[in-house]
Amino acid sequence: MGKLAKGVALVGAGMSKFGNHFPAKRNPDLWIDAWLNAVESVDNGIEPKDIDACYVGNYSSDLFNHQGHLGPQMANLVGLTPKPAARFEGACASSGIALRQAIIAIASGVHDVIAVSGVECMTELPTAGVTDVLATASDSLFEYPAGATFPGLYATLASAHFHKYGTTAEDLMRVGIKNHENGAENPYAQMQQSIKDMMISKKKRYEEQGREVPDWSDEFDFLKSSANPIIASPLRLFDCSLITDGAACLFLTSEEKAKDFTDTPIRITGTGQGSAALSLHDRDSLTSFIATKESARQAYQMSGLKPKDIQICEVHDCFTIAEVVALEDLGFYEKGKAVEAIKNGETKRDGALPINTSGGLKSKGHPVGASGAGMAVEIFKQMRGIAERNRQVKFDVEKAMSHNLGGSGGTCVVTIYQK
Amino acid sequence: MGKLAKGVALVGAGMSKFGNHFPAKRNPDLWIDAWLNAVESVDNGIEPKDIDACYVGNYSSDLFNHQGHLGPQMANLVGLTPKPAARFEGACASSGIALRQAIIAIASGVHDVIAVSGVECMTELPTAGVTDVLATASDSLFEYPAGATFPGLYATLASAHFHKYGTTAEDLMRVGIKNHENGAENPYAQMQQSIKDMMISKKKRYEEQGREVPDWSDEFDFLKSSANPIIASPLRLFDCSLITDGAACLFLTSEEKAKDFTDTPIRITGTGQGSAALSLHDRDSLTSFIATKESARQAYQMSGLKPKDIQICEVHDCFTIAEVVALEDLGFYEKGKAVEAIKNGETKRDGALPINTSGGLKSKGHPVGASGAGMAVEIFKQMRGIAERNRQVKFDVEKAMSHNLGGSGGTCVVTIYQK
To answer: Distance between CA atoms of B14 and A329, rounded to whole angstroms?
Structure first.
């Protein structure tokens, strides 16, 4: 594992609103929204002529939209034809991979400026169809025929964590509560409401309808009730991320070139990627992701940083248990100790290590192939001090990380950003 | 467009037999066949511990096999877990893109040794299903709903070429005849028979069956008969490449590292990639591919070579017309002049510029996502002087090229190899 031969910087980042957009918007529309939003974020402006290549992360436009070959299609929409354009896939880590390959391409000297994006339009299919498509990121010879869809696979991982470390359903609920509190402050999020506010709204609606008002004293009461049905025990509805249409776009440049676009580039000092057997039954551990550990190891080594140096992190909370496991695998907390830190509020916006200030996949939404690029958008905003509403952290963010997981941990990409 | 910051070399290459393998073999089996074949080709041997990452080109395992997330799955089968593993997609140029990204990654200093592969298992679907899946590489908002499948799109391009340059159906037939003559000499090819031999076999069979024996004096008679039905006018069956299951694997290293594996590495001195609008109606020309021209321009510039320097080339003959257009767009012949050269035998094995000595996609087969890597396998063999049977060219190949096209020219990747 070598060092980057050349410095790389992030000079712009933007995203479409995440949400349920089909049929009003499809991949091309979402991509253009993200592109325009990212263009606006570049201090000195950026034009197609400035850009050398177009890297697109996408999980399965094939199955979601019956459209492959997204690279040149997206490039053509924004005037990048005939430049190189390609699609990168690693399940829900697809745009994390696109980002990593762009970092590598700039370091190689082949390209100076790359538009990196993630796009996914999931709601063209009904929910059962989406669940089926996502299941193709598991092993379709072993897990899929056994009926194991992703909520079931993550429920297995949660059960193992509960068994080994005494983690509880309530511990997981705290992750969702925090992420919705953050998402409520993000105008680009799919769900912009805290769980407490949802509870209050629901009570009010019951009252107006003359129905018996549930006896919920706090969010936990609400989350333990039938209002939050079990999806795959021990995971309930609010332990699962959302089905989302959305896109995100990043402008990456070499460090020298960055000066043309901004006086305050964000350097990318670490990239790591790891893999694991797709099937859970092929793994040594159900409470830790080897792909996360490996990618974190590489990224820390490349940047020279240690877990304690990271000030904020966007982690891949496709399920609440995934956030818990990530916080441990990334080295922020010892195995089994993350839930205690979460309980103490350490991962809240005003805590010692704010996690998923964007709202995470849980509240911001999870357009699978776009999620990795979406994380970098939040890191960009927090490091620039421009996060909307009330979610900007109160200190100067000099060192940040994003963690993008694919499938049930078959792929992981970790990126480290520094001022 | 910069230079590679570091030299890159090809030290091993191998492939599965191309053919109709499903259900006996699926992607995992084909990939292992290719891997083992490539391992055998490395002079000093290679082991998983020597390899830093696994890059997989694949068009649509999603639609062909209901399996996504191929990177970590393939990596795990050969002992590469937990190393980085990703899938790259650009329609039929998918493994050309994987190869290019691997070249870039080695040049960047991040990786020293990469296993690059292409895999595709198409025959899990019936032919109509395959045609449908391939059509998702066209524009699914415009071309696909109009019923334009790939034979139709390439028939349109052929008609335009006929109109503009006076190219004829017989000109195209010569491409197929030549490629089948080459494929007959390739033990890994799907169809290992010359068209003349097919004609003779067919005559014999008719004779044995007591049926009227057709009055075919040569291959052209045969190809103009109902034995070669029109698929999409002016293209007939033998103008179309094959539906194939197959995989190919390449070992790429930095130039320094190459010494560990062989005394005769093949240097990769040029890589270029271009894109175009997916839809034909969005293009300026129907007789030239802008993506090919752009990728060739980049690759020539990077390597410092000119078209006249290239001694052999594997070009993307998904349809016979595609080979004609490629020979022109790559700068080997002026526009409209390639068919004359083909007629003169220049592109045959013993001609001035042997093209598709492997048999090409037409005869070797076209497992779409594997075809780009498969081209590099042939280049490797020809440059090493180890091409099987009677297809080794009679001179020392010092400079070669591969040309991998995606869709109806939406993507192109060109690679230049030198001793």
So the answer is: 37
How many Cβ contacts (< 8 angstroms) between chains A and B?
255
User: Is the Cα torsion angle A323, A305, A371, B117 positive or negative in sign?
Assistant: negative
The domains found in chain B, sorted by start residue, are 8-126+242-418 (3.40.47.10)
Side chain identity at residue A227, one-letter code: A
pLDDT digits (tens, 9 = 90+) for A315-342: 999 999 999 999 999 999 999 999 999 9
pLDDT digits over B119-157, tens only? 999 999 999 999 999 999 999 889 999 998 999 999 999
Name the pLDDT band for A5 (thresholds 50, 70, 90). Answer: confident
Q: Determine the Cα angle at B175 with ends B172 and B180, to 5°.
A: 135
Name which of B49, B62, B63, B101 to mutate to probe chain A: the one with the most chain A Cβ atoms within 10 A of its Cβ.
Answer: B62
CA-closest candidate to residue A58, choices A72, A44, A68: A68
Main-chain phi, psi angles of B240, to 5 degrees: -105, 145
How close, in Å, is residue A345 to chain B by CA atoms? 33
Amino acid identity at B330: L
User: Model ipTM?
Assistant: 0.97
Tell me, yes or no, if B249 is annotated catalytic: no
How close A137 gets to chain B, by Cα (Å)?
A: 5
Exposed, middle or buried by CB within 10 Å (0-12, 13-18, 19+), for A146? Answer: exposed
Rg (CA), chain A: 20
Residues 135-164 of A with CB under 8 A from B: 136-141, 144
| Cis before B126? omega within 30 | no
List b or e across B219-256, with b for residues whose CB sees 16 or more CB atoms inside 10 angstroms: bbebbeeebbeebbebbbebbbbbbbbbbbbbbbbbee
Residues A410, B73: C-beta atoms closer than 8 Å: yes
Q: Mean pLDDT across the stretch B274-285?
A: 97
Interior angle at CA A313, CA A312 and CA A319, nearest 5: 140
pLDDT band at A106 (very low <50, low <70, confident <90, very high): very high
Alpha-carbon span B6 to B1, nearest angstrom: 15
**Cα of A148 to nearest chain B Cα, Å:** 14
β-pairing, A235-236 vs A245-254, is unpaired
In single-letter form, the type of residue at position B22 comes to F
For residue A20, give the nearest of A353, A244, A347 by alpha carbon.
Answer: A244
List of chain A residues whose C-beta atoms are within 8 Å of the C-beta of residue B104: 101, 104-105, 108, 110
Of A68, A88, A107, the CB nearest to B108: A107
Chain A's closest residue to B293, CA to CA, is A82
Interior/surface letters B22-47, b for 16+ CB within 10 angstroms, e for the rest:
beebbbbbbbbbbbebbbebbeeebe
Model confidence pLDDT, tens digit, residues A369-378:
999 999 999 9
CA distances (Å), origin B125, targets A13, B62, B66, B130, B133: 41, 12, 11, 6, 9
